[in-house]
Amino acid sequence: MKPIAMIYMAALLLGASYCQAQQTARPSETESIGISSEAAEAAQKAMVLERQAKYTEAESAWENVVKLQPRDADAYAHLGLLEARREHYPEAISHYEKAQRLAREQNTAIPGLNLDLGLALFKSGDFQAAGKLFEAELKQHPDSGDALRLSTLTAMSYYGAHEYGAAIPFLKEASMANQRNLPILLTLGHCYLWTKQWDEALKTYQQILAVNPDSAEADMIAGEALDEKGDKPAAVQQFRAAVQANPKEPNVHFGLAYLLWTQRQYDEAILEFKKELENDPQNSQAMIYLGDTYTRQGNFADARTILEAAEKYQSKFPLVHLDLGIADMEIGENDAAIRELKKAIGLEPDNVTAHFRLATLYRKLGKRDEAKVEFAKASALNKKTDDSLYKRIQDANARPDLDSKTPAPPRPTPEN
């Protein structure tokens, strides 16, 4: 299970106790806002219905309270809670924010309101706003019994917002409080990785081993960090350990295959790319690099088959069109080759290989002027280095929907 999924589950568990707060939170100082006896009686009726779990009737009753007393902050807080129970988070947020505003104007406090609002923001996907609210609550109550929960919720929120650097201090605090909390340690390791703190990622890996020596995900974190530090053999060793620990771990075979690909160990890389596709047939990065490996080995028929499949998922990935262009060129489909190579250049104008291949093809076809232009462009460019492993794995996680112009919801990605 990936850290964001574990975090979301943890948030639900942490939030369960908070979502009960409003049920008994009604202030006794209702006279301070001039509440009428009729409104007070309606509020008592609403509370009884809510405690009896008659939520539809309770919602109607609280709406009646609001009609009788439009500035009753607590009534809006209860309406927010009832909407949150039905997972109507935008409506819940609206009620909570109104309750918050009215409470401030009346110089009163509603216990648990900020936490309930934060959880609604989190569950609606507004992780950044949730993180800021939880952090502010933690600063206001640093010594409360809920401080650890607030730290964890703050960390989860910033992680969900892809603000990995902001999440790290709170994850460290949570991990120090419970040094055997594997989800927190794994998430901390990923945050170090995605903020390019390779040594800290490796230290966290050692902490994870003390909890679970067979964690494939931890081996992958260490492998990616070692790759970034330039220790390719050690990175390969870590990914082999990850494969052995859990051959079904997402991207474990892709990570090993990509490392082997960068070292031109193509035969074994092909086997690992195929194993990744057995686990995840829609892993477009595995398709692309399997197709590229076939291209490098001169297996153009298999290359075209897999690259055409990859194009349905990653039509704007330059390597897809470069390799399709090379394959078309090698089998004599010159017009198709020109189209594909031009697509590759359009997506990545500084791709020296695409310019050189197009120049070579133009020269073969007798188009000397066009060939001269492309050779000049190729000569002026430096060959691009291979992307890092952790960048490739994140691209594998962030794949778009099939044949869709709308990108899929973002997955965690490394900070620049």
TrEMBL record:
UniProt region (Disordered), positions on chain: 389-416
Ranges of the TPR repeats in the UniProt entry: 73-106, 111-144, 182-215, 216-249, 250-283, 318-351, 352-385
InterPro entries in UniProt: O-mannosyl-transferase_TMTC, TPR-like_helical_dom_sf, TPR_rpt
Name of this protein: Tetratricopeptide repeat protein
Organism: Acidicapsa dinghuensis
Annotated keywords: Repeat, Signal, TPR repeat
Sequence ranges of Pro residues compositional bias: 407-416
Signal sequence interval, chain numbering: 1-21
Annotated SMART domains: TPR
Compositional bias segments (type: Basic and acidic residues): 389-404
UniProt-listed PROSITE patterns: TPR
